[in-house]
Amino acid sequence: MSERVYGIKTPIRLEYTYIAGRARSAFLRALAERRLVGERCPQCRRVYLPPTGACPTCGLPTEERVEVSPKGTVTTFCVVNLPFYGQRIQPPYVCASVKLDGADTTLFHLIQDVPAGEVRMGMRVEAVWRPDEEMEASAETIRYFRPTGEPDAPIGLDGEGG
Amino acid sequence: MREVAVVAFAQAPIVRRETERNEVEILLPVVRDAVERSGIPKSEIGFTVSGSCDYLAGQPFAFVMALDTIGAWPPVRESHVEMDGAWALYEAWVRLQHGDVDSALVYAFGKSSLGDVGEVLALQLDPYYLAPLWPDPVSLAALQARAWLEADGHSEREMAQVAARSRASARNNPNAQLAGDFDIDDLLAEPYLVSPLRRHDCPPISDGAAAVVLAAGDLARRVCQQPAWIRGIDHRIEAQALGARDLTVSSSTALAAEKAGVASGPVDIAELHAPFTHQELILRGALGLDGETQVNPSGGALAAHPLMVAGLTRIGEAAQRIMDGVAGRAVAHATSGPCLQQNLVCVLEAE
């Protein structure tokens, strides 16, 4: 009896150059300067942050750059309790959508400096940046968001009274 | 069959490497251009379908981002093929046969410059016996070229003539990547890249995008002075194992051509998606084209070869010549897979 082959190993690794593009490059470069820069749609006037270079609703290029506040409101969140491969933060921790003041879309980020059980929709938060010597064109330049202590804000995305 | 026509075509200037713009930014003006040329308001387009490949972008679901270019609100009817945009156009044609929508936007985009395109394409091969060896597309095409040269007593000179003619034609194509006058003897004096292929026998590596708008019946006649009617369209595929195929001919193209009705009239122009010079000569045979047909007036895939886009571009280039009144009957062809594994044939006619 010859032995059966149950599997073979064929390692695959591909390397890519990521081209961020015009809008995302501007967003990333501004992050390295502790600034948050979105883009406004010429038609519906919504401010997209992060910007993709296009308004997904109108299908138009967004070219007007708009600086938005590093402060915002939690519109939704979840508490991560599951450990998984590659995890860099000890669970439980909070991931949230944060609608920055002046933006019409939300940014996905961590909420820290607060017990997970106290995070809530409407909570006011602000960006906590890396120290000056670690600033770079990366989403990780913002370490996390933390509560500002301001009173909760009404929640609502575009068209919902927000 | 319901009458369906190409009523607009647009493409991006094809370049070796787009370092400033991402896929969405390349695509935006192209989609806008095609929709504007169609004369159909974007909000009235009944169906949208795209062709692209996440392996080129190196990102899962990269095609979803491209939806930003069409403004998918209110929500639209949309589909995607992980294939060249020519197959997206086929899906749009089928969709228009249903009869409930009268127009469709088809777009395709691809940046081959982001990764090693030879490695990326190796992954479309049989994953157990072939892909682990990482054969690149030029080497596979060279196997085919060698078999073809030996089988029928063809010459490398014929291949060089295809390259020279393609690049000479491309001088009239502002979107082409490679164009110019080349001397056949000079080309043949160049060293082999992978014998028997020289650099001129191979396609350039390209970034680009293209878009086509289809319309049915009366709508096509209303918005377009000379619609390019799709009189036949068919696609066929051959076995995955290269060793199971006769690489010296293209039986899938021949069958698709028969089903699409290529032979039922004279062919003024043919836009063939032949990334390698010898493949154009194989395709001419499979399509039964004679000396009366002008092949690849755009310069074809040897002048610009954005993966996932080049096939749709062939349909667009052929249709544009009918819309412009330059041709009365045209054949467009698209290919996918190694050594012309899968082929689509489209017959386009003026009214």
Keyword list:
heterodimer, A: mainly beta, five-stranded antiparallel sheet, 1 helix, 10 strands, 31% strand, globular, B: alpha/beta, Peroxisomal Thiolase, Chain A, domain 1, 2 domains, two-stranded antiparallel ribbon, 34% helix
The percent range for strand residues of chain B is: 15-25%
Largest sheet of chain A: 5 strands, antiparallel
Structural class of chain B: alpha/beta
Integer tally of domains of chain B? 2
Question: CATH first level of the largest domain in chain B: which class?
Answer: Alpha Beta
Order of helices and strands of chain A: HEEEEEEEEEE
The outline of chain A comes out as globular
Main beta-sheet annotation of chain B: 10 strands, mixed
CATH topology of the largest domain in chain B: Peroxisomal Thiolase, Chain A, domain 1
Going across the major beta sheet of chain A, what is the strand order? 8-7-6-9-10
**Low-pLDDT segments, ≥5 res of chain A:** none
Bin the strand percentage of chain A. Answer: 25-35%
Provide the succession of SSEs of chain B.
EHEHHEHEHHHHEEEHEHEHEHEE
| Average pLDDT taken over every residue of chain B | 96
Distance between the termini of chain A: 72 Å
The shape of chain B, in one word, is globular
Helix content of chain B: 25-40%
- What integer value in Å does the Rg of chain B equal? 19 Å
What is the strand arrangement across the widest sheet of chain B? 3-2-4-7-1-8-12-11-9-10
Characterise this structure.
The complex is a heterodimer of chains A (162) and B (351). Chain A has one helix spanning 21-31; strands spanning 36-40, 47-48, 54-55, 60-61, 64-68, 71-80, 93-100, 107-111, 124-129, 142-147. Chain A has 162 residues and is mainly beta. Chain A has one domain (21-147). In chain A, the strands form 3 sheets. Chain A has a 5-stranded antiparallel sheet with strand order 8-7-6-9-10, with no helix packed on it. Chain A has a 3-stranded antiparallel sheet with strand order 2-1-5, with helices on one face. In chain A, strands 3-4 form a two-stranded antiparallel sheet. In chain A, strand 7 and strand 8 form a beta hairpin. Chain A is globular and about 75 Å long. Chain B has 351 residues and is an alpha/beta fold. In chain B, 34% of the residues lie in helices and 21% in strands. Chain B has 12 helices and 12 strands. In chain B, strands 3-2-4-7-1-8-12-11-9-10 form a 10-stranded mixed sheet. In chain B, helix 4 crosses helix 12 (310-323), helix 7 (156-169) crosses helix 11 and helix 10 (251-260) crosses helix 11. Chain B starts with a strand and ends with a strand. Classes of the chains: A mainly beta (162), B alpha/beta (351). Chain A binds chain B through residues 8, 10, 12, 14-24, 52-61, and chain B through 18-22, 24-25, 28-29, 31-32, 42, 55, 57-58, 65, 67-73, 111, 113-116, 119-120, 123, 127-128, 131-132.
